[in-house]
Amino acid sequence: MKLRQSIYLSAAAAVAVLLTACGGGSSPNPPNPPSISVAFNPQAPGTLDTSTTANLTAIVSNDGKNGGVKWSVSCSGSQCGSFSAASTASGVATVYTAPAAAPSPAMVTITATSVSDTTKSASATISITTPSAPISVALNPQPPASLAAGTPASFAAVVSNDGANAGVTWTVTCGGAQCGSFSPSTTPSATATTYTAPAVPPTPATVTVTATSVTDTTKSASASIAITGPPPILADGNYVYHLAGEDPSDLYFVAGAFTVQNGVITGGEQDYMDNGGGGANDTLIPSGSSLSTANGNVQIVLNTGDPNVGVNGVETLRGAIVSNSRLLISEFDSFATASGSLDLQTSTAAPAGGYAFNLGGYDGLSPQNNLAVGGIINISGASISVGGSVLDYNDGGSVAQEQSFASGTVSAPDSFGRLTLTLNPSANAGIPSFAVAGYIVSVNQIQLVETNDSLNGDLGGQALGQGSNTGQFNQAAVAGASYAFGAQGIDGVGIVQMAGGFGLNANGTVSGAMAINDLSLHNGAQITSGTYTVDPTGRVTLSVVATVTPVNAPAFSLPYTFQLYLDGNGNALELGVDNTQVTSGLSYLQTASSADFEGTYALGVFGFVDINHEPAWSAVGPVTVASDTFSGFTDYSVQIDANGNYNSVSVVTPGVSLSGSEDSLNGLLSLTGLNAQSVQATSGFGYYPIDNRRVLAIEIDGQQMGLMMLEGTQPN
């Protein structure tokens, strides 16, 4: 019996061992489940400004009950902030709002605690910062409730709490395309800008001006202004004008200044020079002088008291309005056909530093030659600093370049900004001393007319101030720039006009295009090769080859040498200095981003007709370009009689209709209303955009010559 029991027990034990080895039976103790954990996801911010909010989210892992979290905040103060929801499910955000005032120390501790296991939590410390006061903008003083069209007003804005002291940008909006302009468009806090109302009131006749913080563009201040019209013909002030053209004695130049007070011309003076031995400095007489409007242009009548100029001493001008401080003008009487501009005088201070200058016209020899003179003069007090001055000239194809001055003097300006420059070239320069009367437009511009001197010529031109750029020029300063130019003079055929664009490449080469019209040749040309150099005075020497392709004729190349004299402010003066052309003119830094242009413009154009004696013609007027279509009118002057023959007595016609089209792809204008022999004929012009407001064009249709300027009628 005992033996059987022993065997049985042993078998049972063996079965137990076998079951254990095969995984059978029950385990001694099951493993513990993973513990709950809490974590911020995403991380809580490190800092918050007082009273600002942040979304906080906590993730609870291994919570079989899905109990979520409870939110709490602690700090050293009684106000530590609050939550939008004190309890949230795992992964669901609550919004924490920082206290209105920072505790001390300035930090809070945010805790998310598991609801299922309160021993599990996650905490984050947030620094509470007190922001500075928000930026604010206020107009101070308040702009006026109304402003006359075309008139300027001074505005200022005060920016508070701007640590960057970045000031404001100024903008204006209205219901039309022309709402006015600011100069400058960005100002420091409390610093004035000049707003000029649009030349014509918009529809509705209200504009909104806005000053916006540069640092925080969400902060601004605005004011609405009613625009009334029309503006005064010319605002009070002194105005400088100049004309170049032809009178009965051939070439004719005028420069002068007059004063406007309450719409009345109260005084002035002018200098003129022509080829008949004329030339005088005349005092303008208020009696018989006047301002008025004429079909959208301005009429200016000036009584010189000099029977040798104008009609019995009275000159009549017509002007196309660029702004209430600038007109493009043309003489509009029987004495002369001439064109130019009129500008508000902004300075009569004595000139100082470097000035680029050029003069064109006749020398004093017998027989006469066409003469072009240009260079840089460095003015120091009442004299010319010869060390920083240089002279070039072309006298009928006889060229002298980089000549020096022996001396020179500058008189003090009078109350109209008139002065006299006497320039004495060195003995070996080959040109006698010459003198010019100058009328100061601004610190950067002087209009010039030759006065009585030993040269005894007939010259007119301008000078452009270089200011701080004086003596600081080099190739790097102009490399990559392009200059549009328009010039007039003579070539081997006769009178010539030129226009184009010089591309000054970084490697010292010249590219671009130009057009030539001498009534024999009237074509565009590609600049196929050329080089340029720049000296410290701002004198740029260009040697170029222009390849011309006439219609139905083989191409041929023409070599030219030009001088440009830079002012460093986006302008230059041109001189033709080779034995095939004697020219002078203006040049402008090209910044236009497109050949297409639209809007309202003042048009001024001067040229010559292809008949015997090559009579002069001139036109000024307002034009509109819309969808590549021109419309407008001009006041027209031409030295042709009723039979279509040359006549030294100019014939004027007001309100000649102008129409046509713009081909921006090829840079061409087709205009009807400018042909001196047939008003219905179409004139073709090639054009060169200068910037978003100015376009220079030259007639190339073979019918006549014309050099045109279009200036957008945006307030200055």
Describe the protein in words:
The structure is a single chain. With 716 residues, this protein is mainly beta. Helix content is 3%, strand content 56%. It contains two helices and 54 strands. Strands 29, 30, 31, 32, 33, 34, 35, 36, 37 and 38 form a ten-stranded antiparallel beta sheet that branches. The longest helix is centred in the first third of the chain and has 20 residues, at 2-21. The protein starts with a helix and ends with a strand.
Which labels suit this protein?
single chain, ten-stranded antiparallel β-sheet, mainly beta, 2 helices, eight-stranded antiparallel barrel, disordered N terminus, 716 residues, 3% helix
Distance between the termini: 132 Å
Number of helices: 2
User: Any low-confidence stretches, pLDDT <50, length ≥5?
Assistant: 1-27
Helix coverage percent: under 10%
Largest sheet: 10 strands, antiparallel
Oligomer: single chain
Mean pLDDT over the residues: 92
β-sheet strand percentage = over 45%
Number of strands: 54
Broad structural category: mainly beta
Radius of gyration: 40 Å
Overall 3D shape: elongated
